[in-house]
Amino acid sequence: MHEISVGVLLFLSSLLGVENLPVTPPEWDVVSNWQETAMGHYSFVATNKKIVHECQRYPERYIEFPLTIHSSTQVIVNNQIIATSSSPDFKHARGFYGVLVLPCAQLRGATTSLEWRLKSYNQYFAWFKSFPKVVEDYPKTNVYSETLNIVAAGILLSLSFLYALLFANKISNQKLAFLICSNFFTAFYFIFNSAEFFGLSISMLLAHKVADSGLWLGLMCFIHILYLEKLIISWMNFAYKITVAIALSIICFAPTGDVVQLGTTIPFPLTILLSGYAIYRLLKIGVLRSKKELIQLIALSISFLGYWHDILVVTAMIDSFPMLSLGMPGSYIFILLSINESIDNTYAERDQLKDLTEKLQQTNKELHHAQDKLVESEKMAVMGRAVARIAHELNTPIYSARSAMQNIQTQTNHFLYLLQNNKHQSREKTRQYGNDLSSMSNVLYESLSRASELVRNFKEISVDQINVRKKTFSLLEYIKTSLITLEESLRRKNITINLQGENIMFYHDPSLFYQLINNLVSNTEKYAYSNSGGVIDINLSESPKEITLIFADYGAGIPEKNLSRIFDAFFTTGGGSKGLGLGLNIVYSIVSQKLNGEITCISKEDEGTRFIVKIPKGVELL
Question: Which residues span the domain enclosing 98?
Fold first, then answer.
C-alpha cells in the first residue's frame, strides 16, 4: 500500500510539474539531496557561509526558513544545534506548517558555515519552495501557520457548545447536530495541526491521522448542511459521504504518512466541485435579491478560495502559507446566516400559526354556536313533528269518545221518551238499554284513557324539550315513552320496533335522548325501508364505565363510499327530497359534544345498518 500511495502521489506531483528542489542559489551548497534514512524518512542537507557573515554584519535581522510540511528543521553552527522546529525522529510533533525563524544575533561567534538539515517524515512532502534567507523584519508567517490555527481551534470548540445552547429547539435537530459536529471535528484538525501548543506529545503519524480525519468529518458535515440548504443535490451529498468514508478508512489504517496523504487527497476534488456548485446555485437563485444572500455568496466564496489555496500549498504549486483557518470562518458565516434566516422564518411561521390558531379558535366557537343553533332548531322541529303526531293520535280516541257520547245521548233520550209515553216498558228493552249504555261507556273510557296517556307523554317530552334541565330518569322507560309519540308514523310505514335492555337510571338532560331516538328513527324511515316495512332493534346495556345503545335496522344499508360522510352536515343521498342532511349530524353532535360519548356506524348494502352509541357514566351537561 505504501508503494502504491507513493507512486500515485508522485505521479500527481509530476503532472502538476512540482519539483522537490528549487533552483539552488550560488551561496548555498547542497550536501545531501533528499536521501532516504535508515528510519524510512527523507533527509536534505545544505550549507551556507555567506549567510553567517550577513547575520554577523546585521545582528538585528532574522533568518527565515521556508515552509516545510510534516518536516523537521535543524540549524547547526560550530557543530552545535542552535535551533530546531520539531523532533527529528517524528515521535513528537510540534506542528505541520510552522516555519523556523532564527534571529541573526544567535550566529554571533560563528566560525563555520551554517548547516541546514531538513527531514521529511514521508516521501511526498520531501520538497520545499525556497532556500533560507535573511530578512529585515520578523516574519509574520507563523501567525498564519500556527497562531491562527490555535485561535480557530478555540473558537470552533466554543461555538460547538454555544450552538447547542443558543439554537436548541430553534432549528431542526438534524441541522443543529451537523452544525455542532462540523465545528467540533474541524477543531480537531486545527488542534492536532499544532499538537505541541496544546500540550499533546504524540507522533507525527498519529497527529496526521487524527487531524486529517477531523478535517474530512467536519467538511462532510458542512457539505450536508449545504444539502439541507438545498444548494447541492441529494446524490451529490451521498457521493461525498461515500468518498469521505473511503478516505477515512485509508487514513485510519495507514502504516505510513504517504498512505495517510493518499487518503487525504481523495476527497479534495469533490470538495472543490461541490463548493463551486453551491456558489453556482446561489448565483442562480439571484444573489442581489437580498443583502443576506450577497453576504452568503461572499462567505462561501472565501471558503472556496481557502480550499483552493491550501490545495495549491500542499501540492507545492505555490510558495505560501495555509489559509484554511481564514477560509473556514467564511463557511461558518454562511451557516450562521442561513440559521438566522431559518430562525426568523420559524418565528414568522410561529406568528402566522398563532394568528391562524386564533382564527381557527374563533371559527370553532362559531361552529359550536351554529351547532347549538341547529340542535335548538331541531328541538323546535321535533316539537312540531310531535305536535302533529300527537294531534293525529288524539284524533282517533277523541272522535271515538265523541261518537260514544252522541250514542249515549241518543239512546238515553230515546229511552226517556219511551218511559214517558209508555210506562209499561218491558224488561227486555230496559236490559238492552243497560247493555248499550255499558258498551258505549267502555268505549268512552278507553278513548279518554288513550287521549289522557298521549297528553301525559307529550307533556313530559315537551317540558324536556323546552326546559333544558338535568334529572334522574329511567333511560329505558324514557325511550319507550319517546317511541309512543312515533307510533302512528311507524304504523303507516309498517315498521316494528323491538326495545330491550336494562333498567338504567341516568342523571342528565332527557330531551337529548328524545332527539337522538327521533332522528335515528326518522333516518331509518326515510332511507332503510320502503312502504313494505321492516324491523328496528334497540338494545340498551351498561358496564361499570359506560352505557351502550345499539340501534339496528335490516334495510337497504349504506354504500361503503358514503360511510365516512354520513355524520357530515348537509350530506344526504336523498337529493333534498328526503331532508337537508342534518339528522345524523345532530345525532353526532349530541353524542360527542353534549354527552361526551362516541358513535360508530357499521353498515353493508342490502344487509342493514347498526349505530353503536357509547356514553360514559357521570357525564356533565355541557
Answer: 22-139
